[in-house]
Design brief:
alpha/beta, 5-stranded mixed beta sheet, 4-stranded parallel beta sheet, globular, binds ligand L6N33NVT, binds fe (ii) ion
Length: 536
C-alpha cells in the first residue's frame, strides 16, 4: 500500500473559517446534556474503559489508523492524537477512537475529504472538561445542566427556528414496498461497494429489491398493509413542536425520511420556502450508525452545500443522544412498567433487541453503533438498579439481511439458547428504534415471540416503543434547546461527493454496464440461488 500521510487529512479538520462576525462564531456539537458526573465517572472507571484514546499505545493507534488505510508512522500517530482532542462530537469519552474512526471513515476518508467541517469541529475557543461536556466559550447564550426554557438572545427576534427530524421512512402500501426497498439498497451507506464497483449500485439495488419484495410484503401485510412510521413520526413532530412552544421557543418541525415520503429533500425545500433562519437536525435514532444517521446527514450535507441560502443557514446536528438522562429514564420507566405486569417480575430476563448492522461497519469502517448500544444498555440498567430493579439482562441484534456477517449474537439464536437454558419469563425491549414499525410489530411481536414460546419460554412481554411518551418528547425538546445557540453554517464551496452523478455521460455509461451486468446476473441460476437463500 502506498504510504498514506495523515497530514493529507489535516486540512479539513482545521478550525472552521469564520464565516460571520466573531460574536456569531459558534460551532455546533452533539447533544451536550450527558449523564451525571457520578454515572460518567463510573463508566470511565469501569474495566476496559478509559477517558481518552489520546494515550493509546502505538499498536492500538496502528490498528485504528490501518482501518482507515493509513500507515502507523509517528507523524500519523501524532496527527491522530491531536485529532482526537479536537473533534467535538467525541462526547463518548469512553470510546473516543472508534467514534473518531467512524467520523473519518464516513465523512472524510482519504478519498472523499471535506465535510460540514464547520458543524463538527472545535474552534480553538472551545474547551472540553472531563465529564464529556463541550463548552463553547464564544456563545451568545448560556445553558446549564437542566435547561428548561429558551434563553432569549440577540438573534431571537430575527430567528425563524426549524427542527428537522430525520428517520428512515417506510412503505405506506404494499405497492410501495419494492420501490422503497430499491431506495434503501441504492444507498451506498447500506450496500457499501468498493469504489470500483459503484456503478453496480443501482442494478444491484433493483435486483435485491425485486427478490426481497415478496418477503417484505408479507411482513407489511401482517401489520396492516404498510408501515406506521410516517404517522408516528408526524405525531412526534407535532408533540415536539408543542413541547418547544411550552418552553418558549416557537418552531416549525419538519420530517425528512431517507427512503420514502416525505423525503429529506422535500422537507428541506419546505424549510427553504418557510425562510427558516436557524435549524436543528435531530435524527430519530438514539445511537449513531453510518447506515442510519450517517446516511441521512450525508444527504443533507449534499443538499445544503449546493444551495446558496441553505449553505449559509446556521445548523446544529445532534448526531446521537443515547446517553441523555431523559431518554435513559424514559426507557427505564417503560421497562419497569412492563416488568410489573409479570407475576414474578424479578425473575424476568430483560432482553434488549437492537437492529443489527454488518460487522464490517464496526470493524472496518469504525461505526460507533455497537459501542454506543452497549453503553446505552449499561446506562438503562444502571438507572433500573438505582430504583432497585436488578434483573438479568442481555443484548442481541435482529433484522439481518444478506449473506454477510452481522453483529452478534443474533436475536433468534439467543432466544432459542435462553429457552434451552430454562429461562421462563422474558421481556423484549426494542432499543434502537423510538417508534413502532415492522421490526417491532412483526419481527419481535410475531416471529420472535413464536420462536421464544417454541423454545420453552412461557411468559413473554414486550416494551412498547417510546413513540410520543411525554418525558421522552420533553427530553428531545431540551436537546434542541441546548444545541440551538451553537448552530453554524454548513458552508463550503468544495464539491463534496465523488458519487455525484452530474455528468450525464458518466451516468449513462454506468447505467449501461450496470444493466448488462444485472441482466447477466439475473440469468445466472447460481446467483439467483445465492440471493434467494439469503434474502427470502
Ligand atoms: C437503528 C435502526 C436501523 C439500522 C441500524 C438499520 C440498518 C439496516 N437496515 C437494513 C435493511 C432493511 N431495513 C428495513 C427497514 C427498516 N430499518 C429500520 C431501522 C434500521 N435499519 C427501520 C426504522 C425500518 C423501517 C421499518 C418500517 O416500518 O417500514 C428494511 C425493510 C423491511 C424488511 O424488508 O425487512 C430492510 C430490508 C440494512 C441492510 C441495514 C444496514 C446496513
Ligand atoms: Fe433496517
Amino acid at each position: 500500500m502506498a504510504c498514506a500521510s495523515f497530514s493529507k487529512l489535516n486540512a479539513p479538520w482545521s478550525p472552521p473559517i469564520d464565516q460571520h462576525s466573531s460574536a456569531k462564531r459558534l460551532v455546533s456539537f452533539s447533544s451536550t446534556r450527558l449523564v451525571s458526573v457520578p454515572t460518567r465517572a463510573k463508566i470511565v472507571g469501569s474495566p476496559g474503559r478509559g477517558i481518552l484514546a489520546s494515550d493509546e499505545s502505538h499498536a492500538t493507534c496502528g490498528k485504528n489508523l490501518s482501518s482507515i488505510g493509513l500507515d502507523n508512522s509517528e507523524t500519523n500517530r501524532q496527527a491522530y492524537r491531536q485529532f482526537l482532542l479536537l473533534v467535538t462530537y467525541l462526547h463518548d469519552l469512553s470510546k473516543p477512537s472508534s467514534q473518531a474512526l467512524a467520523y473519518l471513515s464516513s465523512y472524510s476518508t482519504c478519498k472523499r475529504i471535506g465535510i460540514a467541517g464547520a458543524s463538527y469541529l472545535c474552534s480553538p475557543a472551545q474547551k472540553r472538561n472531563l465529564v464529556g461536556k463541550t463548552f463553547c466559550t464564544v456563545g451568545v447564550s448560556k445553558y446549564g445542566e437542566n435547561v428548561a426554557e429558551y434563553q432569549s438572545h440577540s438573534h431571537a427576534t430575527e430567528d425563524k427556528v426549524g427542527v428537522l427530524l430525520l428517520n428512515l421512512g417506510g412503505p405506506e402500501t404494499l405497492h410501495d414496498v419494492q420501490p422503497f426497498l430499491f431506495n434503501l439498497f441504492a444507498d451506498p451507506d447500506i450496500i457499501r461497494l468498493p469504489r470500483l464497483f459503484r456503478f453496480l449500485q443501482w442494478p444491484l439495488a433493483k435486483l435485491i429489491s425485486v427478490l426481497r419484495a415478496p418477503k417484505s410484503k408479507e411482513g407489511y401485510a401482517s401489520i396492516g398493509g404498510g408501515s406506521p412510521l410516517r404517522k408516528i413520526t408526524n405525531e412526534q413532530a407535532h408533540a415536539l413542536k408543542m413541547a418547544l412552544e411550552a418552553k418558549n421557543l416557537p418552531v416549525n418541525v419538519y420530517v425528512g425520511m431517507r427512503y420514502w415520503y416525505p423525503f429529506t429533500e422535500e422537507a428541506v425545500q419546505q424549510i427553504k420556502r418557510d425562510r427558516i433562519t436557524r435549524l436543528v437536525v435531530l435524527p430519530l435514532y438514539p445511537q449513531f450508525s453510518i447506515s442510519t444517521t450517517g446516511s441521512s446527514i450525508r444527504v443533507l450535507e449534499r443538499i445544503f452545500r449546493e444551495d446558496a441560502y441553505l449553505s449559509r443557514m446556521p445548523v446544529s446536528i445532534i448526531r446521537s443522544w443515547y446517553q441523555r438522562e431523559g431518554y435513559i429514564k424514559s426507557m427505564a420507566d417503560l421497562i419497569q412498567k412492563e416488568l410489573e405486569k409479570f407475576s414474578n417480575p424479578e425473575e424476568v430476563m430483560i432482553f434488549f433487541s437492537a437492529h443489527g448492522v454488518p460487522v464490517s461497519y464496526v470493524e472496518n469502517a469504525g461505526d460507533p453503533y455497537k459501542d454506543q448500544m452497549e453503553e446505552c444498555i449499561y446506562l438503562i440498567m444502571q438507572n433500573l438498579k438505582d430504583r432497585g430493579v436488578g434483573n438479568d439482562h442481555t443484548l442481541a441484534y435482529q433484522s439481518r439481511v444478506g449473506p454477510v456477517q452481522w453483529l452478534k449474537p443474533y436475536t433468534d439464536e439467543v432466544l432459542v439458547e435462553l429457552g434451552q437454558k430454562g429461562v421462563k419469563s422474558l421481556l423484549a425491549v426494542p432499543v434502537s428504534f423510538v417508534s413502532e414499525h415492522i421490526e417491532t410489530l412483526e419481527e419481535i411481536d410475531m416471529e420472535y415471540r413464536e420462536l421464544a414460546l417454541e423454545s420453552g419460554i412461557q411468559n413473554w412481554g414486550r416494551v412498547p416503543a417510546l413513540n410520543c411518551t411525554s418525558s421522552f418528547i420533553t427530553d428531545l425538546a431540551d436537546a434542541v434547546l441546548e444545541v440551538l445557540p451553537a448552530a453554524t453554517a454548513i458552508s463550503s464551496s468544495r464539491k463534496i461527493s465523488d458519487e455525484d452523478d452530474n455528468d450525464f455521460v458518466r451516468y449513462a455509461i454506468k447505467m449501461f454496464f450496470g444493466s448488462v451486468l444485472a441482466f447477466v446476473l439475473l440469468l445466472s441460476p447460481k446467483m439467483i440461488l445465492v440471493f434467494k437463500n439469503n434474502l427470502l
